[in-house]
Amino acid sequence: MHRDRIIKFLDVYLDSARIKDASQNGLQVEGKTEVKKVVFGVSASLKLFRRAAAAGADMVIVHHGLFWDRSCPVKGPFREKLETLLTNGITLAAWHLPLDKHPVSGNNAQLLKMLGAGGQRPFGAYDGLAIGVKGSFSRPKPVSEIAGILKKELSAQINTHSFGPAKVRTLGIISGGAARMLEQAAEAGLDLFITGETSEYVQEYAREHKINFISAGHYNTEKPGVWALEKLLRAKFKVKTEFIDIPNPV
User: Which of 139, 221, 227, 228 has the fewest CB atoms within 10 Å, i.e. is most exposed?
Assistant: First the structure.
């Protein structure tokens, strides 16, 4: 499959042209034109690139790419990353907020689905965009049950502050580093807020506002969208795919 056809499809599917983001979404490093195998990962690490090259990848698709608003000199590990891609003719593409907020394949939509909740609606304002989701359970679930599902499905270390209702009916999800959006969840009257990273003030804020809070790791909460993209691309383009996990508990 031609490299540019894959990139164009995902740019359109994820609506990346209309989403303001610090990430340079889409094509980041141009490799060979013919793509037979695509490796998927969460973050553009040197270890991921080396394993992708060893696996015979022609393209790597990640959530956290190499290029953001701030430029950096091409030296040290950054140079090694570029060298690994260019030497092996590997294309690098990344989608950040577009993959967080997508209503079907997005990290947040996939997490809501994983937990068995319904009634999905946009939630979590960030620079004028709703990047998360909120929903509800038809049968309220204990916080411990929800935490158990995340631990199992994401292979994650779970941090829980149970200061809200003993059984959760409504919840909001924003993957990654969104602890500061706990306030929006409390204002919306949700029973539970789920994100990736936590912060020092979260415990007492959750206690004072009587809301439950779960953090499952920035990296781990952003695997589901990457998994969904892999499944989509494999079905549409009939290319070989592989998800390469570089475990990170944060």
Answer: 139
Domain spans of the chain, in order of start: 3-95, 100-218
Lookup: tokens for 146: 């929800």
Beta carbons of 175 and 221 less than 8 angstroms apart: yes
User: How much is the pLDDT for 71?
Assistant: 81
Quick check: 246 and 222 in contact, CB under 8 A?
no
Q: Does domain 100-218 have CATH number 3.40.50.300?
A: no
Q: Which residues contact 62 (CB under 8 A, 6 or more apart)?
A: 40, 41, 42, 43, 44, 48, 92, 93, 94, 226
Distances (CA, A) of 119 to 106, 112, 122, 141, 146: 16, 10, 10, 15, 17
Q: Alpha-carbon distance 69 to 50, whole Å? A: 25
Task: Specify the CATH architecture of the domain 3-95.
Answer: 3-Layer(aba) Sandwich (3.40)
Domains 3-95 and 100-218 share a fold: yes
pTM, full prediction: 0.97
Strand 167-173 versus strand 159-162 pairing type: unpaired
Series of mean pLDDT values for 10-residue runs along the chain (250 residues): 97 96 97 98 98 98 95 93 98 98 98 98 94 98 98 98 98 98 98 98 98 98 98 95 97
- Output the pLDDT for position 70: 83
